[in-house]
Amino acid sequence: MNQAVDQTALKKPLPETLLTALHSLFGERFTTTLAMREHHGRDASSYDPMLPDAVVFAESTDEVAAVLKLCSEHRVPVIPFGSGTSLEGHILAAQGGISLDLSRMNRLLAIHAEDLTATVQAGVTRKQLNHECKDSGLFFPIDPGADATIGGMAATRASGTNAVRYGTMRENTLALTVVTANGRIIKTGTRARKSSAGYDLTRLFVGSEGTLGVITEVTVRLYPQPEAVSAAVCSFGSVADAVNAVIQTIQLGVPVARVELLDRNGVKAINAYAKLALPEQALLLFEFHGSEHGVQEQAETVQAVVAEHHATGFEWATRPEDRSRLWAARHNAYFALLQMRPGCRAISTDCCVPISRLAECILETQADCEANDMIYSIIGHVGDGNFHVQMLVDPDDAADIARAEAVNARMVGRALAMDGTCSGEHGVGLHKMDFLIQEHGVEAIESMRMLKHAFDPCNIMNPGKIIRW
Amino acid sequence: MNQAVDQTALKKPLPETLLTALHSLFGERFTTTLAMREHHGRDASSYDPMLPDAVVFAESTDEVAAVLKLCSEHRVPVIPFGSGTSLEGHILAAQGGISLDLSRMNRLLAIHAEDLTATVQAGVTRKQLNHECKDSGLFFPIDPGADATIGGMAATRASGTNAVRYGTMRENTLALTVVTANGRIIKTGTRARKSSAGYDLTRLFVGSEGTLGVITEVTVRLYPQPEAVSAAVCSFGSVADAVNAVIQTIQLGVPVARVELLDRNGVKAINAYAKLALPEQALLLFEFHGSEHGVQEQAETVQAVVAEHHATGFEWATRPEDRSRLWAARHNAYFALLQMRPGCRAISTDCCVPISRLAECILETQADCEANDMIYSIIGHVGDGNFHVQMLVDPDDAADIARAEAVNARMVGRALAMDGTCSGEHGVGLHKMDFLIQEHGVEAIESMRMLKHAFDPCNIMNPGKIIRW
After folding, report:
1. Residues 6 or more apart whose Cβ sits within 8 Å of residue B130
2. Where's the FAD-binding PCMH-type domain (chains A, B) (predicted)?
3. Domain topology for B108-224
4. Domain ranges within chain B, ordered by starting residue
C-alpha cells in the first residue's frame, strides 16, 4: 500500500556492541524475532509495514534512559511504541532502529481525587485509567476511539468526541516526565492547574510524536462524573442542514459534551452492519453533561435549534441503556464502513476548520468524493470543526490509492484556505509532512527544525517524522 | 529598591550606525530622551528602574522585523514593551538596549464572531478588545486586573479571576504572529480550535516573556456573553473555612466563573479605603455564568457548601448594579492596601498549588507574615489554587525588603514542596530565575536553555530574563 519515501535511506544493521548491551540489560525483553518486529512495524494507517531491527520492552523511566543513552552513542533510531493505534505512520521504522515498547509501563502512579489529577506511566490506556478512577467519582474525558495509551495520546496531541467540551491532550496534560535523546530525565511541570513558570515544556512535548524525546509519565486532569448525562439523535435531509445546526449550537454557547456527525453513507453502512433501521440520512448524535436540569435545558435548546434546520426524528434519552442504543450507530461506524468493500483498507483524513466554514468544507469534499467514485463515509467531531472522510481502497491498486490521496490533498488544501489545519487530531507522522509545510510556511517549519536539531542533535528520535532533517 | 544583579554586566553604548539606521527608519518614533527611557525602564514590580538606551515605537510586524534584524546584526538587546504592567521586572532593560514599544500596534484586525475568535495586533488592550466585540454578543474572558495588552498577556501567560472557568492565555491563544531574533516572521497556528499539526509553536511563545521572539499579532478565543450572570459574597471566621469551601466547590464540579478570596487584612483595608462596612473577616466573592436557571442552581449549590463551612452573610445578586456593589471590595483591593502604609511599595507574590493543599499553603504563609510583622494582605484566585500575598515595604529600607523577600522565598519553597509552581500567572522575569531552577531542576532548565540558544543565538531577546545565558 502506501510506500514511505525514505524507508531505507539511512538504514544499516545494528552495531553488535549495541545488541550485546541491550541484550545484557533487558534479557528476554529485548528481541529481534520477525513476529515481534512485524507487530511493531505497523500501525492503523494505510502504510505498508516498516519493521524495526529490534524491540525493547521498557519497564521504567530509567530503562528508557538507558536505551536512549546507548542508541544516542551508536546513532541508532528509537521509535516509542504504545498500543500501535496511530493513523499516520508515526510508529513505522522508516529508518530502522529500535522500537521502544512502553506498554508494560502500565502502572497508575497516583490518583489525587481531591485535586482532580492522575499521574500514570505512559503505557496506561485510557480505558484502564477510567476503570481505575471510576470509584473516585471522576473520569478522564479524552476519547480518540481506540484504546490508546495515555503516553501515545500525549505524543500525538489526541482528542476525539469529548474535546468540544473538555479540550484535547493539549489542555488536559499538566505535566510529563520525558527522557531526552541524550538520556536525560526531565519533569516538565507540576500538578498546579496553571503556571507561568518558564517555557512550556509540557506543550512542547505534547504532539511531538516521539521526535524530541520519550514521554514516560503523564499527569492529566480528571473531571467529576457529571450528575446527569443525556443523549440525543436526529436526522437531516442534507449534511448542510446538520452542520448548520451544529454551528448555531456552538455559537449559542451550549456546552455540549459531544456532537458527532455521520453522513448518509455512514448510516447506510451501520444499518447493514448492525441490523438497524435508521433513516438513511445525515445523522447528528449529541451528549450532554451537567445537572439534571442542566442537561434537560441543553437538550431543549438543541431541539429548538435542530428544528430550525429541518431535523426529523429527534429522540433523547437519559437512561444509560437508552443512551447506548442511540449512540450505537457511532460506536460501530468504522468497522461498519469496512464491511462495505470486503478486502479493502480505509484511508482516513483529518482536517479541522473554523466552525463557520465547516459546512462548506464538508460539502465540497463530499462532492469531490462523489466525482471520484469513492466508497466513503464522513464522520465529524463537528463541534470542533473537525471531520474525517474514510475512503475505502483496494490495497493492491495503486491508482485507487492515488485517487484517494488526491481527494485527501484537495481536502487539506481546502481546509488550509479556510484558515484551518491539515490535522485536527491524528498528527503528522510520515503522511502529512508536506501538508505541514503548506500549513505553516517555510519560516515556521524552520523554527520547528531548530527545535528538532536542538533536542535531538543526532536525529535518533523517531527520525523521518513531522519534519525532514 | 530591589536591585538587579547584572544591570550593567553587558551594557555598552549603542553603536552609532544602529542609532543612525533606527533614526532614519523611525524618525520621531525613535527616541533617546530621558523621560521616555524612564517610562520604559520601570514596570509594576518593586524593582528600581533600569533604563533602555532608546525607545522605538513600532507600527507593524515588518517594522518589528526591521528592528530585530538591525539589533541582531549589532548584538543589541531588544525588550518588547506593551503597557508596562508586568510584575516581575520583565521589561526592565537589565542589559540596556532598545525598548520596542508595541502600544501603537493597537488595531483589531478581525472579529470572526461566527467562529468565536478575534485577531488583534499585540498592542490592543484587553479592555479595548472587550469594548470592540461587545456588540457581537461575545467577550474575551482573561482578566489579569491591569488593562494589559493582549501581546503582553500572551508573552507572560497571564490569567486572573476568570481562569477557573475559561482558562489562561495558554488555553485561549489559537495563533500568533511572531518575529524571531533574526527578523523572520512566522505564523504559529491557524484559527482551527484544535490541531495536531507539528510542534506547538503557539504554546512555545506564550509565556516566553519576549526572550524567544516578539509577538506582534494574537488570535484568541472569544465566548458568548452568558445569558445570565450572578454574583455572591459571604464571610468566614477563618481563612481555612473559606478555602475549604472553595476546594469542595471545585471538587463538586460547579462551573464557577470566578471565585476570589480576600483575607481579613484585605477587607479591613477596603473598608477604610472605600468607606464600606464589610465584616472584618475572610471574604469569598463568587461569579456565576450560565442560563437563568443555571446560575441560580450554581448559587444554591455554593450556598449549601459555604454553609457547611460556617459562612455568614451570604448575599447574591443578579442585577449588574448589585453585582458591582458586591464585588466592589475586590476591584479596589490593591490600591486599598497601599493606603495602609503611606510611602510604601507592595511586593507581590504569586504561587499556585494543587487545590487540596491550598488551605495549608495559605495558612502557613499567613503565619509566616504574622511572625515577621509584615503589613500584608492575601488575595487568591482560589479556584485555581493560586494566591498572592501583597507585602508593604519601605522602598528605602533594605532590611524591610529582605524580610519580605524571605517570606516570599519560603512561600515558594512551600508551594514547590506541595507540587505547585513558583508562578501562577505573573511569570519569571528577573525575579524568579532562581525559583525556576528550584521548581524544574537543572535538567529541565538545561532544556529551556537549549530552546533559548536555538531561537536567540546572540542573546538579544530580552536578555537576562527567565534563564541565565
Report:
1. B139, B140
2. 48-225
3. 3.30.465
4. 16-103, 108-224, 228-417
